[in-house]
Amino acid sequence: MPTDVENWKDELYGNEIRDHLFEFAEKGWDAIPEDEHDEWFERFKWWGLYHQRKGQESYFMMRIGTPNGVLEPGQLRVVAEIADEYARGPAENPEFGDAYCDWTTRQSIQLHWIKLEDIPDIFEKLENNGLSAQQACGDSWRNIVGCPVAGKDTHEHIDAWPVAEELHETFKGDDDHVNLPRKWKVSVTGCDQGCGQGDINDLAFEPAEKTVDGETKLGFNVRVGGGLARKEPRFARNIDVWVPEERVTDVAGGLSALFRDHGDRDNRFNARIKFLVDEWGPEKVRKTLQDDYVDFELETAGADLRDQYTYNAGTGEHGDHVGVHEQPDGNYYVGLNVLVGRQGVDDVFELADLADEYGSGEVRLTQRQNIIVTDIPEADLDEFLAEDLLDTYEPDPHPFMRGSIACTGTEFCSLSIVETKNRQVRYARWLKDNVDVPDGVEDFHIHLSGCTASCAQPQIADISLRGMKTRKDGEPVEACDIGLGGGLGENPHFAEWVEMRVAADEVPGYIQNLLSVFEENRQGAESFRDFIERHDADDLTGLAEPEETDYEDPYMHNTKMTWYPYAKDDDFDASPAPTDGEGKPIASADD
Amino acid sequence: MADRIIKVNAYTTFNLLDGEAEGHGWTEDALAVLNVTSGDAGDVVLELELDNTETEQIPAHAERVRLSPSEARELASELDSYADRAEAE
Predict the structure, then answer these.
(1) Pairing state of beta strands A203-212 and A303-304?
(2) Which pLDDT score, from 0 to 100, does residue A589 have?
């Protein structure tokens, strides 16, 4: 039996949602019938809009998909202008102010507190500047990810940026692919570091060499069926296909159509293609692709570069693009660390100015929620690095600052059960000030996700934190389940879950104790990931003790039960929502 | 330990309950997740999972029962009635 979502999509989905969205925007929040909220909010996702959580009715999160994280010259300022004018909410965030931009783990942009009435103007401004929120969410082709410095990378074997661009242009708004059984996440990478994170995508193109008709060519191997959500994380499976650059769009379209036709539309929890790959096996996926979805002979897989992957590989070698790196053209790119991926809007304006002044004006977003300024001539590099803004967004950050990722959390998200962004900021600062970094450790990844949906990609971190609740001194408090030892590289590994319901204010003490245990017991220069892997899973539970320290956590209470976790009066009753286009509370019909 | 079986997010009915597993000659207390959700065959699913770090006698697992809509309403009515009784005590 098709799900409610499938029925709603059958009635209306894809490009045509836009007309209805604009009609609602014209008439105002009340024009959306209350008993149709669920179906319209589901459809609005296709146009990059998530309705914010309970207590924030009438406000939306807007996601802008920037393929491969590329923001062309001028676009960062446009994003800042939109955030400045339209993304100011009724309450301030104590760390980031009242307008900010989030850089996401899929190289996209998220803005909050967007009012329905402003959406047509925002779309017009985005589209006039080559940006869009189309298909940034929903059951279709999501933002295409890849090596964020594609085309400007000395590690590169193929420039994957034109490939990602062509996929983006082909499959955004393509009626044959607008309504898939579930989200469809694609990664394209041409470098030898593995930074496209292909292993955790539904479809991954990774660089590989193949001899065809006596000629050795560079192209891509194809993997299918990766993803992290819930208890069912999967790494993408090798379907034994190599594809030349000029055939990538055909193979990608074939696999998307295969998913469209064969994915499970009766059960959304079983809908991602990872479950179809489980059921069929990679061989049947390949055969079906060959028989029914492409009209040329597929090549078998070529020789890949996975043994060279350094990105999040647990070896200690950086692969996250933070820092100063030379481009093949002799200019430099500088990767800036953005703690938990959020920048206040004034800082975004300033960064846009700096990108113009020192580089080409282009910036790029990474899958570690950071931002890269490209095309800086060597002669200007020192002056750029001396800019005050780089004291906050450092190119050479402390390992705990460098490794911190957080999802949206209860601040705005309907799914999360704990506060995340501000907490992870506090964790990183406390760890930096109080915990010795083990010898040789330069990257240490701590990812905090507010629920099992895994938006902060906790399973591929050294320390995985996932929102939960526990009881402390008789009171329910926010907590984390903890996992250890996840990462990517040639042999990717999901974190082992080792502790349940550690009170959020005892997590920094746990990490401190854990790193002491690691320092005392590691064998030589053994990496943290190898240290964890050396232990039996059962022995990892209790390896270190959670502990209260002088770390203070202002978000221990049930932040899900507030209208906004940082508001002075955070009771639901104090919420101004829903509001009209001017941000004024809409009186209820009973008043 | 194994990962949780039941997904936990803001839509989960209860993410922090006191639970208990009992066998012949043993009892173990553990915090628990209890959730009600829609089944995929027009039914209602009630699912329960005890934290597996606190249960040595049983492997990590969740348990589910599938209820027809009328059974779900009967259960709701029973819960309501026993809630009244508990409050009266």
Answers:
(1) antiparallel
(2) 52
Please answer whether residues A510 and A545 qualify as being in contact, where contact means their C-beta atoms are separated by less than 8 angstroms.
yes
CA B3 to centroid of chain Cα atoms: 17
What pTM, to 2 d.p., does this model score? 0.95
B59 touches chain A (CB under 8 A): no
Contact A497 B4 (CB under 8 A): yes
Instruction: Give dist(CA A393, CA A377) in Å, integer.
Output: 20
| Tens digit of each residue's pLDDT (9 = 90 or more) over A251-266 | 999 999 999 999 999 9
Rounded mean pLDDT, A64-71: 98
Pick from A469, A497, A501: CB nearest B2? A497
Of all residues in chain A, the percent with pLDDT exceeding 70 is: 99
Chain A: residue nearest B39 by CA?
A267
Residue A165 phi/psi, 5-degree rounding, is -60, -45
**B chain contacts of residue A451, beta-carbon cutoff 8 Å:** 7-10
**ipTM value:** 0.94
CA-based nearest distance B46→chain A, Å: 16
CB-neighbour burial class of residue A476 (10 A; exposed 0-12, middle 13-18, buried 19+): middle
Using the 8-state DSSP alphabet, how is residue A487 labeled? B
Q: What is the 3-state secondary structure (H, E, C) of A234-251?
A: ECCEEEEEEEEHHHHHHH
Six token digits for residue B71:
């059974």
Three-class SS state of B42: coil
When pLDDT is averaged across residues A290-296 and rounded to a whole number, the result is 98
- CA nearest to B52, candidates B19, B11, B8, B24: B19
Cβ A452–B51 below 8 Å, yes or no? no
| The two three-digit tokens of residue A568, written as one number | 């002075």
CA distance readout (Å), A208 to A187, A189, A212, A217, A221? 15, 10, 12, 8, 6
Q: What is the pLDDT of residues A451-489, one digit of tens each?
A: 988 899 999 999 999 999 999 999 999 999 999 999 999
List pLDDT tens digits, range A366-393: 999 999 999 999 999 999 999 999 999 9
Contacts of residue A417 in chain B, CB cutoff 8 Å? 8-10, 12, 15
- How big is the CA angle at A345 (ends A340 and A348), to the nearest 5 degrees? 80
Domains of chain A, with CATH numbers? 4-128 (3.90.480.20), 150-308 (3.30.413.10), 323-397 (3.30.70.3340), 401-557 (3.30.413.10)
| Chain A, nearest residue to B50 by Cα | A500
Mutate to test the interface with A, among B13, B16, B17, B49 (most CBs of A within 10 A): B16
Residue from A104, A308, A72 nearest A206 by CA: A308
